[in-house]
Amino acid sequence: MARLTDRGLTGGMDPILVLGGTGKVGSRVVSRFNQQGTDVLVGARRTGFDWLDQSTWDPALAGVRAVFVVPLDGATLTGEFVSKAVEAGVERVVLLSGRGVDVPGYGSDDNTAGLTHVLGEKAVRELDIPWTILRPGWFAQNFSEGFFAPAVQAGELRLPAGDGAATFVDAEDIADVAVAALTEDKHAGETYELSGPRALTMAQVADAISTASGREVRYVPITSEEFIAESVRDGWPQQDAADFADVIGAIRRGLDAHVSDGVPRALGREARDFATFASNALWSAVPSPWRDGRPST
């Protein structure tokens, strides 16, 4: 792996830039390229890239042939960035978007994270270079290394999801699809809806984690108002808490229960099951639930 400050690459081909290269999906994409011997650059604050500092964009894009774009939630900078990428000579863009972008009622019109994806997808579709859009549902890894991990460690998932179910997708599958889209021509112009192979309620998730981890975890359904109030007490900004409650509400309303065909369509195999994820996860560490100042979904 090369950092943005170290451009002495080997291999004879221009590198691939992975924004969010230290996150749940990006780090796995970087790992796969490292294993393949593909030159890859990590775009993250610790390597010199900052979404909010556009002076870092040009150095990150110099000599790059393809970009995996993990947008900054709550910001509308994706369009400006991909336009600059084309100007810099980038030949392919793969965007990590989200489920529900074009589903009426999935989220409120003023949900800032949703707006990030809506405008980002629009900008990418208008590019004159090959592009691919990935729309994953809820990450299974949110329970082991993301937003839900502290609650799992505490043994109680208090969420406004009701009895709704979601087809949680393994970040390993998302990374596999991203790598394929970044390196294979057949994915150009595709929008892949990514999910796991079956829907689980939060109670079923808690049971699966309990079985795999040996730790008792239970699900406690609460209202959106209770979730927002508890999150604010824990130090969340009010708007972030409200936005996240809004997204979780899609589970309660049954909008996350459908199985999507993106993984088998892109990779020619079935998506990993949540039970497989749970059996392979490390349940001992409690990571921060925040990414770049915002909860990651």
TrEMBL record:
Upper lineage: Bacteria, Bacillati, Actinomycetota, Actinomycetes, Pseudonocardiales
Pfam families: NmrA
PANTHER family: PRESTALK A DIFFERENTIATION PROTEIN A (PTHR43162:SF1), PTHR43162
Name this polypeptide is given: NAD(P)-dependent oxidoreductase
Domain NmrA-like intervals: 47-229
Xref: InterPro entries: Ergot_Alk_Oxidoreductase (IPR051604), NAD(P)-bd_dom_sf (IPR036291), NmrA-like (IPR008030)
